[in-house]
Structure formats: C-alpha cells, structure tokens
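Limitations
The structure tokens in this dataset are predictions for the assembled complex, not deposited experimental models. Users should treat interface geometry with appropriate caution, especially where small molecules or nucleic acid strands are included. An illustrative entry is reproduced here so readers can see what is and is not provided.
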Amino acid sequence: MRPLVFAGNWKMNVGPVEAREYLRAFFAAGEIALERSVWFFPPAVALETVAQGIAGHRNVLAGSQDIYWEPKGAFTGAISGPLAKQAGARLTLIGHSERRHVFGETDEQTGKKVTAAFAADLQPVLCVGETLEQREAGNTMAVVTRQLEAALGKRDGKARVTVAYEPVWAIGTGRNATPQDAAEVHRAIREWLKTRAVTAAPFVILYGGSVNLKNAAELLAQHELDGVLVGGASLDARSWAQLVRTTVA
Ligand code: PGA
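Predicted assembly:
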C-alpha cells in the first residue's frame, strides 16, 4: 500500500463539544492502515480537544488552520506558532486560499508564516493554487511557482514541507480539476521542490478542492498525488472515516 495523507480542514466548523463527538464516531470505525496518515485541522478553539482526542493514534495528527508570524504579543484575535504548538498542533496550514482571497493575505505574509512555522517546530502545509481566470489565461504554473518561490524560495536549510495544490475555482464549488490536470501540476511542483532543494525529501504533495467519497479513488489513482486536503467532505465523521479507507488502485 503506498503511503497516503488524508487531511481534513474543518474551516470555521466543529467546536470543541462537537469535536469530541466527531472523534468518538470517527474512531468507532476502527483503526486506520498504518501507511495512511490522517491530519485534522480544526478551528483554533477545538485544537486542544482534538489533540487530546487523537492521542495514542500514531498516524493521526492535528494542526492549526493558520498562524500569525510573531511568536506572541499584542495581536488581538491571532494565534502564533508557539501557541498552536502548546495546544497540541504538529502541523499548520499556511496560505490557504481563503486566507489569501477572503482575508487578503499576500505572498510575502505567507512566506513569513512559513518561517514562523519552522521556528515553532510545526510542519507547514503550504497551500498554492490558481484562480479560474489565471487558469484560463494559461498562467497556472506561473502563479503556483510564484507562490512557491515567495513562501520557500529564500530558505537555505532543508526541512519537511507539505505542499497542497488547491485550484481556487475547485474549492467548495463541487468542481474538480481532472485527475490528469491535478497530476500535471503536481509533477511541476515536485520538479520545483527537487531543483530548488529547499525542502527535504520525500516531498508530500496533496490535492484539494471538492474532493469527496465519489471522486477520491479516481484522484488518488494518480501516483503524483500523495494525498488529499478535504474541506466539506471531512465534516461528517462517518463519511470521513469511509473516505480515509478509500481503496486506491
Ligand atoms: P473543499 O475545501 O473540499 O470543501 O472544496 C478544500 C479546502 O479548502 O481545503
């Protein structure tokens, strides 16, 4: 069985009370194959509950959905890498398209957050992806490369980074990239990571954008995909338990 990551991004859903019930239902479905990792990205207020609820499950980790780049101080409403770590995070999403497009986060800020994640010993999951307009103009790779360059280009050490390719037009819209389109962008990202040697192998590249129980097998049949980052379809514990057990050719 090839190793695969199933990452669930709960976005602004599932508080601590619901998270306890969610994990109970999720683990009631039994253990997960050891080659598979399950990562949960709950809202910050539920992070500690999730970290406690997954303790003892070797291949299940929790992460924050975002961090601010300063370690502490007068930044009302923000959470830092060290605070997320204290609540039990091992990973953090950086530059999710909703951070970029709803909250106006820039490439430069995304770069600072990647640096802050390393400083706090959190593994960054860097999200990149083009808008529909950029895809139609044939700029997909230019945009993705610019985002990679801004976030990772200045690094000199080698550390583990996961990249999530999430075309903006496929997120929460029910539209997917075809498995072949996704694989093509994944190949280019892998090539960039190899040539720039800014991150340590093995490179883990996830695909995200309207992944669900119906299309996961077909997407994961592409060996360029090391896993999926899932929003909406990770919110129901029982169907998520099924999704992480998807049979992959
Ligand atoms: P979606 O979200 O699966 O609901 O499209 C994916 C994501 O934003 O990470």
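Some entries come with short summary sentences. For this one: The first strand starts at residue 4 and ends at 9.
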